[in-house]
Fold Sarcoglycan delta.
Amino acid sequence: MPQEQYTHNRNNMQSSEGPQVYKVGIYGWRKRCLYFFVLLLMILILVNLAMTIWILKVMNFTIDGMGNLRITEKGLRLEGDSEFLQPLYAKEIQSRPGNPLYFKSARNVTVNILNDQTKVLTQLITGPKAVEAYGKKFEVKTVDGKLLFSADDNEVVVGAERLRVLGAEGTVFPKSIETPNVRAEPFKELRLESPTRSLVMEAPRGVEINAEAGNMEATCRTELRLESKDGEIQLDAAKIKLPRLPRGSYSPTGTRQKVFEICVCSNGRLFLSQAGSGSTCQINTSVCL
């Protein structure tokens, strides 16, 4: 068929059928599903926006922070009670000027000081039963820096001018104690007592026992020894009484006078002997045995 005839026949067919229209888009159930998903997405966006606004309102979010937390130039500031469920790391924790700082816990509060290798150097534990501190040295000082109390492996130092013990049973020292002065409070007695063992007081330059407004008593179970290696022992008083010294024998036929002389045995024991015209200590040497 010639080309001209083919073209003529095609044009006649198109003119006889009319113009053809091709539809572009989504129609039917696909269109309804699309509109439904768009509407659902809008609802979710509105709900999400409302929830975000509600959370911001409840948590009190502002430009400076959220809730009781405020962001300042010096750091973070917490107002009111705060609870931390995980470890808190901070360079410095301080309260507001004029207000106290409280640490509350249902069990205990532990403060650890670590080194570069995260090894514990110092530890403070405050629990319901005790307060424990672990470290090489423990010190208590005044505001001026004066040492009040110090403790380490070698010694315990009390730097206060006066150490007061208010217990009814006093203070118990299982070993020795070194101090320049031991005295009681005014108008109260001072007792140095060793219930089961001996009590020894030594000093390189002497021991002085002074009772200015009362009596002084020294009581023991077996022996009371006053010893001075290079010096002397002085008993300076208006009256010196030895009421329980043993008495030597006396002659029943002689005059029984109430005058006695003090005799000293070679072992240092004292006894009384009835005085006579001469010394009667020689006739009572049996007392020294």
